[in-house]
Amino acid sequence: MQTVNIEAAEGHLSQLIDAAVAGEEVVLARAGTPVVRLVPVAAPRRRPLGTLAGRMGPVPDDFDAPLPEDVLRAFEGT
């Protein structure tokens, strides 16, 4: 673990970020007291397309048909 005072970190931020991305724990301190830990942002997980294929029922033919008036009024609160 690397602990660096904020004042010292200002000139070496790029190197500290590289160290955190490489897996090293980097802690920034104010007057010797730890206040912030630098951690890399996790890459978003991407789900492969088609993972639910065959698990859902068929889409009805009228799926995108206009709603009946009574249901539409209920949604609109009138």
Describe this structure in words.
This protein is an alpha+beta fold and about 80 residues long. The chain has a domain at about 1-40: YefM-like domain (YefM-like fold, 3-Layer(aba) Sandwich). The chain contains 3 helices and 3 strands; from the N terminus they run E-H-H-E-E-H. Strand 2 and strand 3 form a beta hairpin. The longest helix is centred in the first third of the chain and has 9 residues, at about 15-20. It is elongated, with a radius of gyration of 27 Å. About 5% of the residues are buried.
Q: What is the topology?
A:
Layout: E1 2-5, H1 6-9, H2 13-21, E2 26-30, E3 33-38, H3 69-76
Parallel strand pairs: 1-2
Antiparallel strand pairs: 2-3
Concise structural overview:
This protein is of the alpha+beta class. The chain has helices spanning 6-9, 13-21, 69-76, and strands at 2-5, 26-30, 33-38. The chain has a three-stranded mixed β-sheet with strand order 1-2-3.
- Major pleated sheet: 3 strands, mixed
Beta-strand residue percentage:
15-25%
Strand and helix order:
EHHEEH
Strand adjacency order, main sheet: 1-2-3
Provide key terms for this protein.
YefM-like fold, single chain, 78 residues, 3-stranded mixed beta sheet, alpha+beta, 3 helices
